[in-house]
Specification:
Helix content is 62%, strand content 13%. A hairpin with a 2-residue loop joins β6 and β7. It is built from 10 helices and 7 strands. It has 2 domains: 174 residues, no CATH class; 177 residues, Histidine kinase-like ATPase, C-terminal domain (Heat Shock Protein 90, 2-Layer Sandwich), CATH 3.30.565.10. 18% of the residues are buried.
Length: 360
């Protein structure tokens, strides 16, 4: 058997087990209520007069009969629960009539021909007509049985749909996280390799360090980011390597600065989230061979609070909130709902983004 087929069989088995377990528990609760009813019924009659109550075995028989019939009714209702509405209504009527007929006849037989140890000589109702006439209470009990079934069925379906919704949300979240991990621009690698090629041709002393930084970036993206959370310090190291490699494209005196205040003491963060802001700044705010380029990245850590800001020159006539920033906003809502605040501002050739994040 193939692996996915085996997993499918196991999933079906677990699903069937949970369904059966639910109905066993539900019927167990109903059985306790039924038994309690007949105990109280016996106590009520016995408290009036000892001769008014039937033998205890009679009440046990009534309780067992009710439980058996209830089990059969629930089984029948469950078997056609998802059929066409009109069909369900018709079958409900048929089940009621069948249940009612069986109930009347069994009680008639017991009261008419039952042994003395089961029924006293004075039967409650000695004819079918009398049993039907005084069966309004039994009809009420049947309505309660059906109501109990549909109430528990609706509850089970609701709980199951909520569980599926949560599972789908988790799957969607994982897909979204994987999408975020894949959003590091391919142009970054292309430009970096071109820059490294230039450094190699000129035997530049920066080449070994640049190669090490590229290796760190690729290891982080390919290996470290397979986790739901990464260490904050690893994310910071990744940002510093990324910025260092991007700086190779610009003039020596171009201001591209990253400052880190505070220490990452075991805090974790969603991988590749902060890079979207920096990449967005390079894409929309930095032009090669321009003296007006500048970028300042500041990251401050205080306990479990992270303050992150990017300020940069800005040239793009379009909105600076591209796909990357939109995706980050979506992931912040998924992973840090109620724990973050983000502001973006654009004015006088400058674009700034500020993020306040609770890492707990």
């Amino acid at each position: 058997m193939k692996k996915h087929e085996h997993m499918s069989v196991m999933h079906q088995y677990r699903k069937r087990f949970h369904i059966e377990r639910f109905w066993i528990l539900a019927f167990g609760v109903y059985a306790m209520a039924e038994i309690l009813y007949w105990v109280l019924n016996y106590v009520n009659w016995y408290s009036r007069c000892t001769d008014c109550a039937q033998p205890v075995i009679y009440y046990i028989y009534q309780a067992l009969l009710n439980l058996v019939l209830t089990g059969l009714v629930w089984y029948a209702l469950n078997s056609f629960y998802r059929k066409n509405r009109l069909v369900v209504i018709g079958l409900n009527i048929a089940v009621f009539l069948l249940h009612y007929t069986i109930w009347i006849w069994l009680n008639y037989v017991v009261q008419k021909f039952g042994p003395e140890w089961l029924m006293r000589n004075a039967a409650f109702h000695s004819t079918i007509k009398e049993l039907i006439y005084f069966s309004w209470f039994d009809i009420g009990k049947y309505v309660l049985k059906v109501t109990a079934f549909y109430a528990m069925k609706f509850y089970y379906d609701y709980r199951n749909s909520e569980k599926q919704r949560i599972e789908l949300a988790m799957i969607n979240k994982d897909l979204q996280l994987n999408l975020l991990k894949q959003q590091l621009s391919p142009h970054f690698y292309f430009n970096t390799l071109n820059n490294l090629y230039g450094l190699a041709r000129s035997n530049n002393a920066k080449l070994p360090r640049a190669l090490q930084q590229l290796s760190n970036i690729m290891h982080y993206v390919i290996v470290e980011c397979n986790q739901q959370r990464v260490g904050l310090q690893k994310e910071i190291d990744f940002l510093q390597s990324y910025i260092a490699l991007e700086k190779l494209r610009y003039e020596e005196d171009t201001v591209i600065d990253m400052q880190v205040e505070g220490r990452a003491n075991g805090q974790t963060i969603l991988p590749l989230m902060l890079i979207q802001f920096v990449e967005n700044a390079f894409k929309h705010g930095m032009k090669e061979k321009s003296e007006q380029n500048w970028m300042r990245v500041k990251l401050k850590i205080r306990d479990s609070n992270l303050s992150f800001s990017v300020n940069n020159s800005y040239y793009s006539p379009l909105s600076a909130e591209g796909i990357g920033i939109t995706s980050v906003r979506h992931h912040l809502n998924l992973q840090y709902e109620g724990k973050y605040d983000m502001e973006m501002q654009r004015e006088d050739g400058m674009f700034s983004v500020k993020l306040q994040l609770d890492l707990t």
